[in-house]
## 1
Amino acid sequence: MKNIIAKVPISKIVNLDTLLVPIKNNEDDLQIIVTNYKKKIYAYLNSCPHDTRPLCKDAEYLWTKKKQLQCMHHQAVFNPQDGRCIKGPCEGDYLLRINTIQKNGELIFYKEGF
Ligand code: FES
């Protein structure tokens, strides 16, 4: 059984490279980082594996010049395609991947255990 945690119209991400999507019904204001990287959608929990702080509060500052994701706190750098930290204090750790499906013009995010 899929536990749906958020939905957005697909049209919202088509022309952007990043979108922050709030997760519904959570007291910690958790968000999903949605990236449209090389025309493929990737979604991760906006929580750095270094110490669980959000990678960013504004998606505008998330990307490095080399098109990698960077945490605003201690500059850990992540591969946008698999969420692996490739440089920084949590090197080798991964962002938590959020599963997505597309249905009826919506991008639906789901995760077991939320
Ligand atoms: S909290 Fe992200 S690198 Fe330290």
## 2
Amino acid sequence: MTMPPKRKERAAKTGGARPAVEALKKAGCRGCPALCCHDMVEPISRPQTSHDVEELKWQLQYDTIRVFIRSHRWHVIVQGRCMYLTDDNLCSIYDRRPERCRQHNPPDCERYGEFWDVMINTPEELDAYLQKEKRRRSRRRKKRRQARQS
Ligand code: SF4
Ligand code: SF4
């Protein structure tokens, strides 16, 4: 899969590689252009029905929307910029920032490389992922059947 422009842009910002954990802990948020304040991430349910899949595909048509899966949990990312972020990329409401912002910390964040297991950028990538998942499930079922019969 070629790297889509949105991901290329992020890889350029993060340098692509995931630096050593100790170095990450020391760096913290210092020098980061507040990447996490530019994306809104919201948990979503895994699409179950064909209607759900069509809805999600429709959302993925927009270049500000992506979906990622991490530890089997699905999330939607909406690109944007928080209204409380200053021109210097600082939080203007730091002392009363929302709980979600308080819980988001390095090194488990956007700055330090891939934080997802699967990233889905387009409706076509969603179809491809779901097809792959279907094939995987069918192989697993077949193996279980064979194990029961032997
Ligand atoms: S949590 Fe991560 S992405 Fe957000 S400002 Fe800190 S280092 Fe940057
Ligand atoms: S409230 Fe502050 S920490 Fe939270 S996203 Fe906005 S600028 Fe970032």
## 3
Amino acid sequence: MAKVSVGLRGWRFDEEEIFTDDEELKPLDEIPEEPRERLVRLVGLVEEPCDVCYLEHGEDEIHRCNQAEIVYGEPKGEVLLCPEHERDLLYWFREEGGSEHAGTLEFADRFHEWVAAGNEAPEGYGSVEHVDEDPDGLPDLPDQQDIQERVEQDFDGDRIDILELAGESNDEGDELDEDDLGDVDLSTDYPSNR
Ligand SMILES: [Zn+2]
């Protein structure tokens, strides 16, 4: 079964679980719960900054952060990274005990603590292996923006669920438009060790 990434590199989905034979995204209620949770979570993550950039620059200088392109970890315990900072996560994961936290919701917190303590991958780490990552290659995918819009559309009447999945509550309970969804503030999921 082919594995595909959607929106951000990292999380992999079984192609058959989320796409029809025509490479259309399946209706969300036909997608198994676990991949659906990650898919919906992704909608709230694709516009977010890299965690390491965010730790470096903070909310006040968020414009200096690179937008995340990579996601690792479990939904709600995930780490978002730009290509520049992916090697820090890889180094922490492989050499600094990060793999012990794989599969847990503490994964992101532990990595953030490591970064916040001033750690980073040594000079040159990961610069070679990065090239041949994903040797199988990605199959052609429908436009990823299109996928995101479809996910949002499918949940049109059910926006509160999206916000809950994104770890954000909407106390006002008013309907949200597309722009609001794009601006969902996930900062509560950012480092807990400020
Ligand atoms: Zn970064």
## 4
Amino acid sequence: MVQPEVELCEVCQKAQATVHLCQAVANHPQKMTSQDYCEECYRQREAAAGREAEILPTEIGACYYCGNPAKIGGPNTGPALKIRKQKYHWKCGPCLQLYGTLLKMELTGKAADLSEAEAENRLAALISRVDDQVRQMVGKT
Ligand SMILES: [Zn+2]
Ligand SMILES: [Zn+2]
């Protein structure tokens, strides 16, 4: 797998992507989306959806997993916010890749017949497990 150094915004394909939105829909794992936006396109997206864009701090933080300088971040929402207790989920390139791969593996094949609350709990457990796995793989346990 060859990773480009700089990931470009998926919308304009011009600016460097700094916002990573990963949305896992509790009852519909197959609907998980993972998209990278530049700040401008992210704002436009939120505005189009009638939402206030989460303003990302101008300083990019350290990678949530390995502590190296992060490349991209996204707001933590729902169960992810409960688990990580941080407003933003910062990731460096390699950790982002690992996280995406593991999360997809975990989500694949999970049954959908759960109540909203059960699904939320399961999603929370899953996120926490994937976070631990990424940390282990980058040697920060
Ligand atoms: Zn853009
Ligand atoms: Zn990292």
